[in-house]
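Sample log: Chloride voltage-gated channel 5.
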Amino acid sequence: MATWHGAMDHRGFHQGSFNSFQSSSSDEDLMDIPGTAMDFSMRDDVPPLDGEIEDKPVSSDLEVGSFPCNLIILSENRSYNGGGIGSSNRIMDFLEEPIPGVGTYDDFNTIDWVREKSRDRDRHREITNKSKESTWALIHSVSDAFSGWLLMLLIGLLSGSLAGLIDISAHWMTDLKEGICTSGIWFNHEHCCWNSNHVTFENRDKCPEWNSWSQLIISTNEGAFAYIVNYFMYVLWALLFAFLAVSLVKVFAPYACGSGIPEIKTILSGFIIRGYLGKWTLMIKTITLVLAVSSGLSLGKEGPLVHVACCCGNILCHCFNKYRKNEAKRREVLSAAAAAGVSVAFGAPIGGVLFSLEEVSYYFPLKTLWRSFFAALVAAFTLRSINPFGNSCLVLFYVEFHTPWHLFELVPFILLGIFGGLWGALFIRTNIAWCRKRKTTQLGKYPVVEVLVVTAITAILAFPNEYTRVSTSELISELFNDCGLLDSSKLCDYKNRFNTSKAGELPDRPAGVGVYSAMWQLALTLILKIVITIFTFGMKIPSGLFIPSMAVGAIAGRLLGVGMEQLAYYHHDWAIFNSWCSQGADCITPGLYAMVGAAACLGGVTRMTVSLVVIMFELTGGLEYIVPLMAAAMTSKWVADALGREGIYDAHIRLNGYPFLEAKEEFAHKTLAMDVMKPRRNDPLLTVLTQDSMTVEDVETIISETTYSGFPVVVSRESQRLVGFVLRRDLIISIENARKKQDGVVSTSIIYFTEHSPPVPPYTPPTLKLRNILDLSPFTVTDLTPMEIVVDIFRKLGLRQCLVTHNGRLLGIITKKDVLKHIAQMANQDPDSILFN
C-alpha cells in the first residue's frame, strides 16, 4: 500500500472497530507541557461519546502515558439526511441523524475553524427560520441569543469568587510562616492587629494578639535562639507548602503546573488538549496555587489565574449546547475568560480585555470584544464585593503621588526601559536553556526533589532579608509607596529638614541611615530575585511570571529613583535641575520610578505594550503617569526584540513543540507549495480513497496501515481528479455505526462517496453511502502558489490541511505541521521540534 508522509497522524486506530480508539501504539514521542510529559500514544480509556468532559486523576511521576480521551460531541455542518436504506438498490445511507462522534476531534489535533464556523452559521440559520413558525421557537431563538451573555455572567462570578478565595487564603498562609493569631487562627497578621486595642499607628504590625513561633514555642521573641526558631519554622512551613503543591499536581492533575498561558494561547489557536481545562485541573490548580504562593517561591498567582478563569469558562460551556457542540464558539468564550482572569488578577478589567486581544487570542471578533468586556466587568465587581485586600480598593497597588513628572525624567525612564529589555532577553534565554536541560536530562524525572531544593534555597536566603521575607506583592506595594510623614518603613527614613513645602507634599530630603540600609538590602534582593526566578518558572507547580518580573523592575526603579532624588537634593543648582527643581521642593518621586521599572521589566519578558500600560495604570490608579509608562514599555520591547524576537510565552510554545502559527511574524522566503507538500519527489504516492470502487475492507486496511488524520477522495486512481476530503475519525465511526445498524454490511460492501449510486445485482452485499461525511469543498492551492500566501491562508483561516493540485489533478497535501516545520527550517531551527499535528 502506497503511503504518504504527512503530519496529520493520530496513533492508535486499528482495523475494523471503533474500539480501536483504546488500542495503544508503539510511538514513543513525548510532549512536555511545562510540568508534565505527555505521551503521544493513545490512551487506554474508551472515549466517552456523551459530550461530557470526563477528567480523571492521573497518577504517575509526571510522565503521563495515559490520559482520558474525552471526546466533545459536535454537530455536523451538513444535514445527515441521506437516502436511507433503499430496498430497490440495497444502498445503505445510515446517516439520517447525526452520529455521536462524527465531526469531533481527537486529542492533540487541530480543529477545522472553517467547518466549525459553517456549522454555527447553519445552526443559527435554522433557529432563525424556525423562530417565525411558533412562539416557542421564538422564545428558543431569544434564549439562544441571550445564552452568550448569561455564560459571561457566570464566568465572571465564578472567576471573581475563586480569585477572592485564592487571595485571602494565600495572604493567611503566607503569614502563617511567621506566626499565628491567638485571638482567631483564621486572621492573618494585618487583620489580627486591626482588631487589637493595644496597637499604635507607628507599630501597627505589632500587637499582643499576634505571636511569632518563637513566642509560642519558647515564650520569647528576643535573642539568638528565638531567631533560630523563627528561621527554622519559616523554612519548614515553606517546604511543607511546596511539597503539598508539587505532590497534588503530580498525583491528581499534571496539567495544573506552570502559568498555563502558553497552553492557553495554543488552545485558542485551535489545538485540542483534553483535560487541560477540566474540572480536576481547576480544582487542583486553585488549591496548589495558594500553596505555591504561600511557600515564598519567586512566583506569582496572576498568570495561573488566567488558566483558572479559562477552566471556569470551559466547564460552564457544557451547560450550553451552543458552545458545548462547537469548538470555535468555545474558543470565543475562552478568550473572554482569559480577559476575566487578568481582570481579577490585577483588578484591571480594561487591561484584561486588551491582554486577551494582544497576547493570547487567535480569533477575536467584535462580539467577543463586547463579551470579554462584560465578563471582565462582572469578575472585577465580584472581586470588589469580596474585598480580599481589605482596603475597599479594587486595585492591587494603589498609589497617590503628589508631584507631576518632568520632561527631563524621561531619560531615566528610558534607561529603566533599556534595563527591562535587557533583563527580559536575559531571563528568556536562561530560563529556556534551563527548561530544555530539565526536559533532556535526568532532572526532569525528579520534580518533587527539584521543587523542594529550590524552595529550601529560596527560604534560607530569604529569611534574613526583610524585603525577601515578605510576599512579593507586599514588597512591590512598599516600593511603589510615596513616603509620608507617618511612614515607618526604612525606605522612608529621611532626615527631616523642612524649608518650604506645599500642602500635602514633602520636600526632597537627605537620606537617613535607614534609607542607605534599605538600598543595600534591596540590591541583594534584586540579585536573588533575578537568579532564583530563572530556576523557579517552569517547575511542576503553578507559577506565574508577572509579579516576579514586576518585582525586579520595581527594585531597580526604586534604587534609581532614590539616587535621582539625592542627586537633585545635593545638586539642585545643576543645569539639568535648576530650571524645574528648586531647593526645598518635592522634585523626584522614587515610587514613580519603581512603577515605571516594573512596567519595563514585565514588558521585556512578555513583550506586551498596549495592554501592559493599561494594566499598570489600572493597577496603581496612576493615570497621569501614562506617558512614562508608555516610554518605558516601548523601549523595553525594542531592546528585547533586538536581542531575541520571542516573548517568554512564545519561547515556551516553541520549546514544547506546540503547533502554533504566530500571526505577528511575516514569512519572507520565496518557496512554493510544491517545495513543502507531501509526498515529495521520489516519495511513495499519496494515499487516497476512490469515490465508488473501494470496499469496506479496503478502507479498513488503509486505516490500519496508516496513521493519517484524513484522506483525499478522488474519482479514480488513474485520473486523480479531486472529489473531496474525508477525516479518518469520521470514517471509523461511520463504518462501525453501519455495521451495528445493518447486518448486511460486510467487508466486501462497496463504499460510495457519490451523490447517486448505480444499481447493484441481487445477492450482493449492500453498499455503503458515505457522501455526507465528505468535505466537498476542501481548500486547494496549485503547486506554484508561493508559500507566503499558503502561510497566510493557514493563519487567517485556521486550516488543518490544504490540498495541492495541478490542472485539477491532485498532487499532494500540506498540513499545519508541514507549514510549521518549513518555517522552522527556513529559520535554521530544528524542524523535528514540532511534535504535533
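Observation: The longest strand covers residues 809-815.
Observation: The longest helix spans residues 135-176.
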